[in-house]
Amino acid sequence: MNKKQLYKLYIIDQKSIRVVAKELNYGEATILKYLKKFNIPRRLRNPFGRKLSQKTKDKISQAHIGLFPSQRTRLKLSLAHKGKRYNTSHKIVTKKGYIKLYLPNNLMANSHGYVSEHRIVMAEHLGRPLLREELVHHINHNKQDNRIENLQLLNRSEHGIMHENLPETKKWRSKMMKEKRKQKYWSTKKV
């Protein structure tokens, strides 16, 4: 790689890195590396995209003269802009099945402004916001049944013990252990 040749192609001839790489039979990353090595300054990009000639600008403006959206398109546009200002739902259901409400000013809200509905119900029942260590357990295991009769306030260890004795948890744990044993068995080398 010759410094003078690279300087001429990139700075004087104003060729792009892609064109320089093609002419010199190198990759673009290699050209960038040698520009840095030879202390050849990078050209600034145009912040507004590529420059168009006046002839091209005139063609574009002529192409758009007299074009108006149809009545049907205007109706669709107006319907799309009606309603909420921001496209945030006030009630969502997570992948795990919990209902979350959009309450960004709530003390228990996450970084996106959502709070689990069962935590709000329990906090209103207690008359105070819940602590992070406090978990709300659904007694009938239906995550969307957020009646106060179905909710129980537990700490993490109590909640873990409660779920430890469920048949689904036992099945999952035994399946996981079988897979671990199988991996351990097959991964060891026999000599």
Give the SSE map.
Blueprint: H1 3-12, H2 17-24, H3 28-37, H4 54-64, H5 71-81, E1 91-93, E2 99-102, E3 114-116, H6 117-126, E4 134-138, E5 151-155, H7 156-164, H8 167-187
Antiparallel strand pairs: 1-2, 2-3, 4-5
Helix pairs in contact: 2-3
The strand count comes to: 5
SS summary, helix count: 8
Amount of beta strand = 5-15%
Instruction: Provide the spatial order of strands within the biggest beta sheet.
Output: 1-2-3
Rg estimate, integer Å? 32 Å
* CATH C-level class of the domain at 91-164: Alpha Beta
**Per CATH, which architecture of the domain at 91-164?**
Alpha-Beta Complex
Give the termini separation. 53 Å
Q: What percentage of residues falls in helices of 4 or more residues?
A: 40-55%
Mean pLDDT: 82
Largest sheet: 3 strands, antiparallel
Give the helix/strand class.
mainly alpha
CATH level 3 topology of the domain at 91-164: Homing Intron 3 (I-Ppo) Encoded Endonuclease, Chain A
Globally, the shape reads: extended
**Run of helices and strands:** HHHHHEEEHEEHH
- Detail the poorly predicted runs: none
Task: Provide an overview of this structure.
The structure is a single chain. With 191 residues, this protein is mainly alpha-helical. Among the domains are: 3-37, no CATH class; 91-164, Homing Intron 3 (I-Ppo) Encoded Endonuclease, Chain A (Alpha-Beta Complex), CATH 3.90.75. 47% of the residues lie in helices and 10% in strands. It has eight helices and five strands. It has a three-stranded antiparallel sheet. Strands 4-5 form a two-stranded antiparallel ribbon. Helix 2 crosses helix 3 (28-37).
